[in-house]
Prior knowledge:
about 425 residues; 6-stranded mixed β-sheet; 5-stranded parallel β-sheet; alpha/beta
Amino acid sequence: MENLFGLVDHEDFFSRPCIWVNGPVIVGAGPSGLATAACLRNEGVPFVVLERANCIASLWQKRSYDRLKLHLPKKFCQLPKLPFPQDFPEYPSKKQFIDYLETYARKFEINPLFNECVQCARYDETSGLWRVKSFSSTSRNEVEYICRWLVVATGENAECVVPDIEGLGEFKGDVVHACDYKSGERFNGKKVLVVGCGNSGMEISLDLCNHHASPSMVVRSSVHVLPREIFGLSTFELAFFMLKWLPLWLVDKLLLILTWFILGNIEKYGIKRPPKGPLELKNTKGKTPVLDIGTLEKIRFGHINVVPGIKRFSDRNVELVNGEKIDVDAVVFATGYRSNVPSWLQEGEFFSKNGYPKTPFPHGWKGNSGLYAVGFTKKGLSGSSSDAMNIAKDISKVWKQETKQKKQRTNACHRRCISQF
């Protein structure tokens, strides 16, 4: 029986309803999954997108703060086959980026199956096919999708990370992760501890300050802070340009010299720089430098307090590793996210235990037996776009060849039937 998606249902093929997908199954409808689907659509290859949330780009729509903007210029963040509208600013807002993604999905006729949580996916050696078991929170049913190709597009930010700190369960104030933080408005007049000093931690601290809270930001380890722009040019774009002519180590040195002239010596505020340069650290460890959009100025004038690591929490205060105790009303954990791939993908060759492909960019998009990964490059949306185009071309080559051979066999059979008649 053919269903609404042009797929074939086999109720008793296995122990649960099964759906044959004449093309790849894409797990995840974030920017990476959408980019892959659009590239496949452009190649004429059918696909199915499974998404556990009830919307596309759920990280942006449901788990990001209101003031969020793209940290890089829009031309480095657009997805394949569709640039941003010309009237969008250089750094589009959260709402503008979501509007862009929804337009993108409509243009390429991408209709994900929402509220489908993939519980496990494994390669069946006997049949040479992938078996993807999904649970629908809408119908409360399990379905198994059978396909030749599986594209993992759940990304680097699937699950939030909250560190296990002594005494946190005893703390009586509000505790939220950055994924649940929307605005500093609810913290007006409160003392808030922000744990983490990446781009999210810096920006949340700034937002709290702008809403008349008293934030303290935990800086436990060293971090590179760069201005978002240098002499009117995007720092990222300037670095990208210099790398065409200069070695990476020299570009790092030039960036740090220019940063010192613009931001000054940030170590006197309690923010230490790593011994490796920002680009080297990004390439070797995947650690993204922070692009300052005004937080350092608030730190400089004492509106944001920088504190060292946490030793333990108690009823209404926190003890720091230097022995200092500070009173806080709330804690925001800007401690990042992690991949959830190991929890559902039964595979041990392509993905490592931390949920990332073992082979680094630019070769980490293709595994064995029709397995692919997109959005795990630690190079943002540009890395996702590169992976998406490679994946679509690779699948399309095989799919078109097989479709052509099938058509030739069908035509040959048809001709034999006519001649016999």
